[in-house]
Amino acid sequence: MGNNPYSLTFGKIPYELISRSNEIGEMIDNFNSETPNTSVYIITGVRGSGKTVTMSAIIEKLKKDKKWIVISLNANRDILQSFASSLYEETMMKPLFVEAGIGINTPIGVSFSSNGPVPDVEVQIKKMLNVAKKHKKRVMIAIDEATNDMNFKVFASSYQMMLIEGLPVYLIMTGLYKNINSLQNEKNLTFLYRAPKYELKPLSIIAMSNNYKKNIDITEEEAVQMARLTKGYSYAFQVLGFLKCKTGKPIDEIIPEYDEMLERYCYEKIWSELTEREKEIMRLLVMSKDGRMKAKDIKKKTGLTDQSYPTYRKSLSMSGVIDTSDYGYCEIALPRFKEIIKRTEL
Fold it and tell me: How far is residue 69's CA from residue 93's CA, in Å, rounded to a whole number?
């Protein structure tokens, strides 16, 4: 079948990608404007929806513009220290930092206390950002899978002060809905509460079927069948395309391996992160005839009230697990989730 254009690797920009050009274009246009409306964007969605790939596409475009310094940081490390060290080591900026008397010969140290980081790391970062500002440079920070831990909160608190001081620093980050929601509810991080959120919606069925038809020797009917089988779920699009290219088998014969990969790499983790109440709702949908139920029936079977039910509905919907676009109904949003969970969890 030749080289397989579809990828199973999370976070890597696949050779074949259904572009989210509208979202990407809007964010880049804002960041590049003379007076951006926002300095921060948050990309959220279910696991496998393409958050990291979307962020990567944005930062790769910004890297091609000489006015941008793009720094990707690991959310699991000391973010503030990593930012200071990475910024100082930027090839085109380091001579300017040295010229400005910012001498950092060893990695910048930072310690934590109840009051946050010790001052020096913030002072050094602000000095470097002022140099960047003087030379009309903008600094973009990219953080993947942010979580509400002390490490991120210390960084975010410092970042907020940089914004207040008018320094040219921008932030794009990804995260699961629950983690982002938790961060936005932190009282001292008001800039995050106001930051625009892009919830990644399902991909276009037409765009996916066209892509399959272009890259795989199949009929238009088969391409549409494959696209519908993904329900617009980004990772499923890659998995199904990969398996079809690899095996050349009819779609029905690919389903068992398709299910296995979705369960192993996505659904097992998604299920484990649901609360017991959310699992109760999902079990009802899984056991329903077509993965779809009226909201009033869910409330009746779970004992949830008109006041408590919306909380769980919103959480499941914003997490990308259910579709609530049809008023009064809930429907499983993920492809083959009903069949997989029925076999593995019930």
Answer: 9
Q: Provide the CATH topology of domain 21-199.
A: Rossmann fold (3.40.50)
Written as six digits, the tokens of 274 are 């649901």
% the chain with pLDDT above 70: 92
CATH of 274-344, one of 1.10.10.10, 3.40.50.410, 1.10.1130.10, 3.40.50.300: 1.10.10.10
Average pLDDT score over residue span 212-217: 94
User: What's the per-residue H, E or C state across 184-253?
Assistant: HCCCCCHHHHHCCEEECCCCCHHHHHHHHHHHCCCCHHHHHHHHHHHCCCHHHHHHHHHHHHHHCCCHHH
Note the pLDDT of residue 104: 57
Element (H, E) at 323: strand 322-323
Full-model pTM: 0.88
> Cα separation of 180 and 193, whole Å?
9
| pLDDT, tens digit, 9 for 90 and up, residues 285-330 | 999 999 999 999 999 999 999 999 999 999 999 999 999 999 999 9
pLDDT of residue 1: 46
Task: Convert 76-109 to b/e letters by CB count within 10 Å (16 or more is b).
Answer: eebbbbbbbbebbebeebeebbeeeebebeeebe
Helix 276-287 × helix 309-318 angle, to 10°: 80
What is the distance between the alpha carbons of residues 323 and 304, in angstroms, rounded to a whole number? 19
> Stretch 202-214: mean pLDDT, rounded?
93
Q: Decide: helix, strand or coil at residue 136.
A: coil
CB–CB of 298/330 below 8 Å? Answer: yes
195: left (phi over 0), alpha (psi -120 to 50) or beta: beta
Within the chain, all domains assigned CATH 3.40.50.300 are found at 21-199
Give the CA radius of gyration of the chain. 23
The whole-angstrom distance between residue 125's C-alpha and the CA centroid of its chain comes to 27
Q: How many CA atoms lie within 13 A of 336 on its CB side?
A: 29
**Mean pLDDT of all residues in 272-294:** 96
CB 316 within 8 A of CB 278: yes
Do residues 38 and 196 touch, judged by C-beta distance below 8 A? Answer: yes
